[in-house]
């Protein structure tokens, strides 16, 4: 299992455009991937679903945890972090 955290710095949070781009990239991986918001591990979100990401209601400065488990977990987490660092530009 691979985990990483990031602070959502995008001014508008996870609105439709970044959520869609994030979901599209997450869907390319075989690993099971979940997101957690602000350390709350009781509620997990599916990053392969744009609807799930948007229901998270993540706004600027929220802490998001990515957790992946599977054959390509390392690549999945690193790629998703890189996407966020590049302001959702693929």
Automatic annotation (TrEMBL):
GO biological process: phosphoenolpyruvate-dependent sugar phosphotransferase system
Pfam family, one: PTS-HPr
GO CC terms, sorted: cytoplasm
Subcellular localization, as worded in the UniProt entry: Cytoplasm
Keywords: Cytoplasm, Phosphotransferase system
Main subcellular location: cytoplasm
Residue ranges of domain HPr in the record: 1-90
PANTHER family to which the protein is assigned, alphabetical: PHOSPHOCARRIER PROTEIN HPR, PHOSPHOCARRIER PROTEIN NPR
Entry protein name: Phosphocarrier protein
